[in-house]
Amino acid sequence: AFAMPGPWWSAHGITTVAYDQRGFGQAPNGGLWPGDDVLRMDLRDCVDAVRAKYPGLPVYALGDSMGGAVVLSSLGGAEPLRVDGVVLVAPAVWSRTDMPASYRSALWLIAHTAPWLTVSGKGLGIWPSDNIAMMRAMSRDPLMQHETRADAIWGLVNLMDDARRTAAKLKGEDPPPILVVYGAKDQIIPAKPTDAVIDALGTNAQSRRYEYGYHLLLRDLSAERVWRDIAGWIETGTLP
Predict the structure, then answer these.
(1) Cβ pair 223, 4 in contact under 8 A
(2) What's the pTM value of the predicted model, to 2 decimals?
(3) CB 76 within 8 A of CB 170
């Protein structure tokens, strides 16, 4: 997710520290869902490690897609994430409250009767980005998961539920500054739950919708505009 924007941000004075979340990439137990609390704990540990390595520098947590749900849900609870700002990129916030009953029922059934079964997005006609070269390279990447276990999808939906609840609870509180960016052509996360989260966050968040943006907003053909806006917001606290 950060192979493209990371070097650009580095050239503009922002260091990107990225890690493979448990169950993904080169992290242990590939394909297995580690649990929501474990993902949030890892994020807090990473923030602590970054603060120790770069003392005195502001630290921002950027979550892309599922990472956005991890970051957002980490802002609540007994030990909220302590950062100088939060960036949510096409956050995974499609909770059960937004899903048709048929989706919820089918998910419960397969996750509780055949959790080892895997599913993929093949044949659905969904385009995650307009960057065809990037998607072709991603399809050949041996560290990419092209199929997902049913129990992992169940875990992801639980995480999205947590993120939606946290967004609602933050109204009236004093969380760190939040930026939400998303694409109008996102075919993975529907616009309705994304708009609902932005409305729930209220004055706690700034947001920007990109008319030509897809779900992989940081890797689209027009991604540099998003990188620039995020960098500008980090520098000034306001969208350029």
Answers:
(1) yes
(2) 0.94
(3) yes
